[in-house]
Design goal:
192 residues, mainly alpha, 8 helices, globular
Length: 192
């Protein structure tokens, strides 16, 4: 039995994150752009559920709570987990080291879950699943655009490809062309 409180946002995140290319896209945006994966998923969930697009002011107020939690709880756990994975510890038995790393990873996941529950409580307009899917797609992409503005990021082709992967998982019934139309122009072909 899970210790995690059930929540539609958490369930959505688990489903979407396991989609093709989503984990890679999220981690790329996290590493290259400093994105919080939970905020990326939150932006998608809000749009997918038919909620209004975030304003920059609203998202900035949400980010204040999220950034502190990330800096003081999630990121230190992530650093410890990576250190346990990447650094050789010849004095430790491998199975002991693996057990410690798994426990730290579990703590990191629990911290991510706690952040998601908090995020969902900070913006609570009602969902509108009857809103046309095209409008929900535009809202999700718009939310990610607002996040880019809050981060001071001008999206490039790699960012648009990552957003397209998120949208494909969020809106699996839409075609790649519909998603590309909402996300923006594809990367230009490299010159030979």
């Amino acid at each position: 039995m899970s210790d995690f409180l059930p929540h539609p946002f958490w369930n959505f995140s688990l489903e979407i994150y396991s989609g093709e290319g989503v984990a890679e896209a999220c981690l790329d945006l996290q590493e290259r752009r400093g994105c919080d994966v939970n905020i990326l998923l939150f932006c998608c969930w809000l749009g997918a559920s038919g909620r209004p697009t975030l304003t920059a002011d609203r998202l900035r107020s949400i980010l204040k709570a999220s950034d502190l939690w990330q800096a003081e709880i999630v990121q230190p756990l992530r650093r410890v987990r990576r250190l346990l994975k990447d650094r050789p510890w010849p004095e430790a038995l491998p199975e002991t080291l693996d057990a410690v790393r798994r426990r730290v990873a579990d703590a990191e996941l629990a911290a991510e879950h706690a952040e998601q529950i908090k995020l969902a409580s900070l913006y609570t307009p009602p969902a509108d699943r009857d809103r046309p899917v095209e409008k929900r797609l535009r809202a999700a992409v718009g939310n990610l655009g607002v996040y880019a503005v809050c981060l001071g990021v001008v999206p490039d082709a790699k960012d648009r490809a990552a957003v397209a992967a998120l949208m494909a998982a969020t809106f699996p019934l839409l075609s790649a062309e519909e998603i590309a139309g909402a996300v923006g122009p594809a990367a230009p072909a490299p010159s030979a």
